[in-house]
Write a structure and sequence with these properties.
Order of helices and strands: HHHHEHEHHHEHEHHHHH
Largest sheet: 4 strands, antiparallel
Strand content: 5-15%
Structural class: alpha+beta
């Protein structure tokens, strides 16, 4: 440890430069960010039938439809003329969206007998006595209309980018008093994407703030508190850089990776900083501070990093790919944080002026009164 400590002090500039280069590369990889909101991979990954189903979808290029459940107010039914007019208007609004290839409903786009487009004006011209017959002519009406005739189903088939279509579709204002609910994989994926975005924006900063407050209560110095968590932050950044550099995507599982890395990987930084602060109370020599601190916590830092990473790597035995990634990438990130804590943190702290005080240090006992 003495030789390592002396090297880190005397070659601190090189250590910091290497760390900076790796960090810049990781930052550059962040521009390759891709998000995967497909929650069905938990059912299909590692499952023979699930993977066969995915292969069929890819082979025949089938699109996930968006289900639009339309409900009418109490006292009305689908057979009411004004309701049919509103259904046609809703169908046309959905069909007009960019990326919607087809909309299926109880009211087709064209009259199968004449080929004329079915418009609200055409529905309005149908006599009231003929409305029920008009609906019953649709062979799938029984499948698309509920028994109480107050609910019906429309199916919107996207032509491209189903998630974008789902977002635009949910913003469509239904005409009249119709109430609309949306379901289907594209709607779920759009919701998950929004959740992932909010998660990345708010949860990691909240975790960092809580860690800073906790560490400050132990260290008592703002500068050292920030430096103690810095290796974990770099570990999380490097891990995301590696994920994107390898072409992987962020999903509802891998979005948790920075949380695990920051929380688990910050322990080594805290241990090193607190012991380094204690060493600064005993000597002003930079080499002695680093070497004595590494003698005390160097081996424990290595062991805790290995044991924590091994715990996450145990998830690799599962057959579900997202869970395997949850085991692999936090383990790598914790390893990164351990390496940064062991090499970068001593090189960064050694040239800094450290206040030789510690909030938990016991004050010396008062001198006894002089004897008479």
């Amino acid at each position: 440890m003495d030789r390592i400590g002396r090297f880190l002090v005397e070659r601190s500039g090189r250590v910091l430069a290497v760390t900076g280069i790796i960090t810049l590369v990781a930052v550059g990889m962040l521009f390759r960010l891709k998000v995967n909101a497909d929650v069905t991979q938990f059912l299909t990954s590692g499952n023979e039938r699930g993977e066969a189903w995915v292969a069929l979808q890819e082979k025949y290029d089938t699109a996930d439809p968006i289900n639009v459940l339309v409900s009418v107010p109490e006292g009305k039914t689908i057979s009411d003329k004004d309701v049919l007019i509103e259904l046609v208007q809703l169908r046309d609004r959905i069909a007009a969206l960019e990326g919607v290839a087809h909309v299926g409903s109880i009211i087709p786009a064209v009259n199968p007998l004449t080929g004329a487009a079915i418009t609200p004006e055409m529905i309005d011209a149908i006599p009231e006595a003929m409305i029920g017959r008009f609906i019953s002519q649709n062979p799938v009406a029984d499948l698309l209309v509920s028994d109480d005739a107050r609910h019906t189903l429309m199916v919107a088939v996207p032509s491209d980018d189903p998630v974008r279509v789902a977002r635009e579709l949910t913003d469509v204002e239904p005409p009249g008093d119709l109430k609309v609910n949306y379901s289907g994989n594209p709607v779920i994926f759009a919701t998950v994407l929004d959740m992932i975005g909010w998660f990345l924006l708010f949860i990691p900063p909240a975790v960092i703030i809580l860690l800073l407050l906790t560490f400050f209560a132990n260290i008592g110095d703002g500068k050292l508190t920030i430096l103690s968590i810095f290796p974990a932050l770099l570990g999380a950044l490097w891990t995301f850089g590696l994920i994107f550099g390898l072409g992987h995507e962020v999903d509802i599982v891998s979005v948790l990776v920075p949380i695990y890395v920051i929380v688990m990987g910050s322990a080594d930084g805290l241990h090193f900083v607190t012991h380094y602060q204690e060493a600064s109370e005993r000597t002003e020599d930079r080499v002695s501070r680093v070497t004595s601190t590494l003698r005390q916590v160097g081996v424990p830092m290595i062991l805790t990093t290995i044991s924590t990473a091994a715990g996450f790597l145990s998830l690799l035995v599962t057959g579900v790919r997202p869970i395997q990634q949850l085991g692999l990438f936090p383990a790598i990130g914790i390893g990164f944080a351990g390496v940064v804590s062991f090499f970068f943190l001593p090189a960064l702290l050694s040239p800094l002026a450290i206040r030789p005080t510690h909030p938990t240090a016991t004050p010396p006992p008062p001198a006894p009164p002089p004897t008479q």
